[in-house]
């Protein structure tokens, strides 16, 4: 644990109500960064927290959601899936998302991370967890890695753009 992480509590997947022994990318929550978080101010991870943190922010909502200063542990895959489930276009300006939509997004982040942990995470390429098991959540992805394939909800082809130097997958019909 770094000195900086000793001084400021971190918003991790466990502090949003999920109790994994490690984050989904295989790192421990303690080693994942030194982000200032809602936990430091006593706030809960919910839509109100995301809405407050997004005020005045002009970055894309996906970039905002993946900002480790906002919440630790939401990576590219889970951000794409949570935004899809919440019906939010990943390029929407974070500061323009309504409070009610952030409430839905926070719920989807919790639901998707909980489900992914139960399924063993997401195995891409040759990743194997420390216990030797692959993750099975990849088989249930709605948008990530599915560019050109039909949306599982509306059959519109999934699109891909680059945001923050990361491939970003979305359905142009389901996500607005």
Q: Briefly, what is this?
A:
This protein is mainly α. Helices cover 31% and strands 6% of the residues. The chain has a single domain, classed as Helicase, Ruva Protein, domain 3, CATH 1.10.8.
Features:
single chain; 176 residues; mainly alpha; Helicase, Ruva Protein, domain 3; two-stranded antiparallel ribbon; 6 helices; 31% helix
Describe this protein's structure:
By secondary structure, this protein is mainly alpha-helical. The protein has a single domain (3-170), classed as Helicase, Ruva Protein, domain 3, CATH 1.10.8. 31% of the residues lie in helices and 6% in strands. It is built from 6 helices and 2 strands, in the order ααααααββ. It has a two-stranded antiparallel ribbon. Strand 1 and strand 2 (166-170) form a beta hairpin. The longest helix is centred in the middle third of the chain and has 20 residues, at 99-118. It starts with a helix and ends in a 6-residue tail after the last strand.
Number of domains: 1
Instruction: Look at the structure and give the CATH class.
Output: Mainly Alpha
Average pLDDT confidence is 76
- Secondary-structure element pattern, one letter each: HHHHHHEE
Overall SS class: mainly alpha
Main sheet properties? 2 strands, antiparallel
In percent, how much strand structure appears in the residues? 5-15%
Distance between the termini: 40 Å
Tell me the helix content.
25-40%
The rough form would be described as globular
The name of the CATH topology is Helicase, Ruva Protein, domain 3
How large, in whole angstroms, is the Cα Rg?
16 Å
**Total number of β-strand segments?**
2
Q: How are the strands of the largest sheet arranged?
A: 1-2
CATH architecture descriptor name = Orthogonal Bundle
Uncertain regions spanning at least 5 consecutive residues: 1-42, 123-127, 134-138
User: What is the overall number of helices?
Assistant: 6
